[in-house]
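FAQ: What does the model actually see?

It sees only this:
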Amino acid sequence: MIKILFVCHGNICRSPMAEFVLKDMVAKAGRAGEFEIASAATSREEIGNNIYPPARRELARHGVAFDNRRARQITEQDLAYYDKIYYMDRLNAQYLRRLFGDKAAKCQPLLSRDVADPWYTGDFSQTWDDITAGCLRILEEI
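And it is asked to produce this:
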């Protein structure tokens, strides 16, 4: 089983979108049983909150199923447990390096550039495009 964790700042927009997009992709490819996919935050700001409503609407607009879930912060146990950890932007990378030191080398960006943050841009469509591109790349690599 390949265990993948997506990380963003608050775990209410980008990382849960990536979690459910990749779950949808592997299910459609008939490979759901090969993966465990989750998401977490670098910050504590949104802990306990569900996916941000516009992010839920964007997932639904594309026919991607999602569960009600609660934002949580990444832990050292996550670093040990997950095979691959993908972060969304440079600020996430900085936080992960501060938190985990050299062990953060296990974490990698979802894209070669920052994934658009809809919290600030309001453009969930661009975030969808970025996340979809990153998740397709993951499937090609695995």
